[in-house]
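residues and backbone:
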Amino acid sequence: MGRLLLVRHGQASFGADDYDVLSDAGRDQARRLGAHLAALDVVPDVLLHGELRRQRDTATEMAGAAGWRLAPRLDARWDELDHLAVLGAYGDPDHQALDRRAFQEAFERATGRWAGGGAPDAPIEGLESYAGFVARVRAGLDEAAHQAGPGATVVAVSSGGAIAAAAALLLGATGPDLAAAWSRLNAVLVNSSYSTVVVGSTGARLLTYNEHPHVTGPSLTYR
């Protein structure tokens, strides 16, 4: 039985000039996760991450704390959706001035419209469609599950949107149900949480979702 762990990156720098940087709390969350997985005797054969800095740095911090010696590999299929572009096209044009709660509400409204296929208020050239996003995540999931194969362990560091899409696909959701499941699953993911996928003769199946015993109290964040 193979195993694939889908890890959400640690907390990014909300409100900073560069969001795509782990906050001090985010680095601590990644190190906590590495120590937790080491205590569970998790030793991956493959460590993947998307192109974003917060994903790469989470993989590095986690691996260091766990004592893993393998080199992380880039797989851009695990990138997050461009949430700022989606907000700009479908959401509040003043989203950068919002606090965390208001931002989350605006984000959920915008991504709901994006996933529902509605026309954007402000079309943005090159904006990835929801269907394209899901297809990209599906390809990354299929490849990671293939690498897990019979008896291997793969860890993929990604982001909430991509992990929620993978989980919705694994649950067998399709059409409008897929978009609805994705939205609900995306809303609850904890920073540095992990979800476990088992890979056997019948394919990949979601075993657990959004585990986060390593972060409690002030160390537990959603954005």
